[in-house]
Amino acid sequence: MKCDVISLDNKKVGDIELDDAVFGVEVRADLLARAVNWQLAKRRAGTHKVKGRSEVSGSTKKPFRQKGSGRARQGSTKVPQMRGGGRAFGPVPRDHSHKLPKKVRKLALKTALSAKQADGNLVVLETAALKEARTALLAKQVAGLGWANALVIDGAAVDANFARAAANLVGLDVMPSQGANVYDILRRDKLVLTKDAVEKLVERLK
């Protein structure tokens, strides 16, 4: 399929042929959900911890006699039902990550790219480069392009001036093609790929 190539000044400078094997696959919500869950699970720290009854400090003395008080019998003040006691079945440090087959991850990324293309939210940029790292200049260009919420993916490396200028713009993320992932693509409304990024992604996913 053909797609227009534009410049940062919002002018058409040509067109590009997008590979249907990468940008035209069937959109499957189940694969996108699996990939996003896998990514978010991997980034969880898993450091949550509470104290159980064996870990809280307190006396081991029986709080009151077994019979005659009219209360339910208790053997310790450290049990979960007592105020200040340990928590039953509380969270413990663990690894939340799980495995996702490489084929599924690859297909999910293709699906995410295809979903943006199908929705008309895929933009191909000639090049994401600036002569000087000026946020005001880039902000003006981004406003003219209508990228209020966008992810810009460049080729093997991101232009230093462009990355520095974009760092202060809310709603604009920039990354190299190697970092392209399902979660970041889906969390932004617009997906902006440079010509180099298209080439690298096709090479990576074909």
Strand order of the largest sheet: 2-1-3-6-4-5
Would you identify the CATH architecture of the domain at 2-28 and 98-205? 3-Layer(aba) Sandwich
The level 1 CATH classification of the domain at 2-28 and 98-205 is Alpha Beta
Structural class by helix and strand composition = alpha/beta
Might you state the CATH topology name of the domain at 2-28 and 98-205? Answer: Ribosomal Protein L4, Chain: A
CATH H-level homologous superfamily name of the domain at 2-28 and 98-205: Ribosomal protein L4/L1
SS elements, strand count: 6
Amount of helix? 25-40%
Give the mean pLDDT.
Answer: 95
Query: Globular, elongated, flat, extended or rod-shaped: what is the shape?
Result: elongated
Q: Unreliable segments (pLDDT under 50, ≥5 consecutive)? A: none
Structure annotation, total helices: 7
Rg (C-alpha, Å): 27 Å
Strand content: 5-15%
Output the helix-strand order: EEHHHEHEHEHEH
**Separation of termini?**
16 Å
Question: Quick one: biggest sheet?
Answer: 6 strands, mixed
How would you describe this structure to a colleague?
By secondary structure, the chain is of the alpha/beta class. It has a domain at 2-28 and 98-205: Ribosomal protein L4/L1 (Ribosomal Protein L4, Chain: A), CATH 3.40.1370.10. 34% of the residues lie in helices and 14% in strands. The chain is built from seven helices and six strands. The protein has a six-stranded mixed sheet with strand order 2-1-3-6-4-5. Strand 1 (2-6) and strand 2 (12-17) form a beta hairpin. Helix 2 (29-43) packs across helix 3 and helix 4 (135-145) packs across helix 5.
